[in-house]
Every structure is written in C-alpha cells, then in structure tokens.
Here is the input.
Amino acid sequence: MMNELIRRAAKDAGFFAVGIARAEPVPEKARLDDWLSRDLCAAMDWMRRGPAERCDPQSLLDGARSVVCCALAYRFAAGRDYHDIVREKLRRVADAAKSGEPGARFKLCVDTSPILEKPFAVRAGIGWQGKNSVVINPNIGSFFVLGEIITDLELEPDGPVPDKCGDCRKCIDACPTGAIVSPKVIDVRRCLSYLTIEHKGPIDDKFAKIIKKGQYGCDICQNACPFNKGENYDTAR
Here is the structure.
C-alpha cells in the first residue's frame, strides 16, 4: 500500500512524524488577508503575492490529490541550512513513492515555497497550531521544521489531532515585546525572531534594548510552552 511505503520511507529518511492531507484548499485566506491588511507581515512583502494560491496545492501542482506533510526535529540556526536537509529527505521519500508508481508526479516544498504549510500540517495530524502560531506535536513539542510533498497520488488522508492549548497562555505572556497580539496571530514587526533574522535596517530602541549581543532568532514563546518541557497539559494548567 502506497501510504505505508511513504510512511516507511519518511521514517527511514529521519522524519519523526508524517501525515497525509487531501490537496484541497485550506480555509485560511480570510485570516491571511486580515493579517496582511493590518501590515502585521512587516517587510515580508512576498507574503502578499498570491494569498489564494498559498492556500491551494493545485497552484503548485496541477492535478494534485494529496499533500504528504513531514516533520523533522531540528533547530534551524544550528548546523547546515535546514532547507537543504529537508529537501534532500523529501526527495528520498518521493523517490521511494515513485518506485511504486513510476508515473506519479511530485512537488517538494520547504517553507520558502508559496504554500501555507502549517494549516496542512494540522490537517495531516502532525499537531495543532498553538497560540504562538507554531505547530505543536503532542509527543515532541514544537522544535521541528516542516516539509511537504504535493502529489497527484490518491492517498488515504489522516485526521487532525485535538488542540490541547486550552486556557493556557504561557507563550503569549512570555513574549517580551507583545508580538502575539491574539491567539495564532503574530505582529511580525514586534517579533524578536523576525527582527534578528529578516529585518533590514535600524531596530526601534524599545526592542533593541531587549536583544542580546549576537542574538539570532528567539525561542522565548516556545520555551514557555509546557509541551516543550516534558509536562502534560493537565499539570501545566
């Protein structure tokens, strides 16, 4: 069965989780449009290009039927560029699938591809989207990166897992700049990760004084999450 072949290949490639979603548009366009209209994307103007297409795998592969979502435990600032690592591993999975279905077509995506990978990861059961907007896996937490294989193969989809954030707001309260303006909504202009990686030019003094010398990125909201501390949710509440 192709599903099992893909799962085995993903695990062999080093992904700790793999899930399959239907290649149907995700209903995120309204939220994305609202986020863009409020200029919460800062200078990431590429996010303004084709918001509808970002929600639809068909825009990247005509005739797409399934999206294989893979998760790799990896801290992106440590070691090789994770884009290259994830793409290599996705290629191994796609090659394994192609050995079973030589005529199948595949499109490999990492986070630089114009697809909203988090909603598809949620749909595929990799985890749920936390209030700090990142995907949280119930077993490993949120310190992982995602990759997708869009394919015209008709695969059996997985279902989503329950959202276990509940009333917890530790990530929101921990953010020193108030960048999490509401659950799952980030004001990138205030985000220390954006300011120390993507931002070009001077940084507002009220944020600059928080940034440590040589800081690259920020994990404060993730470190505050109980699922990254080996705690179960009931205890954390």
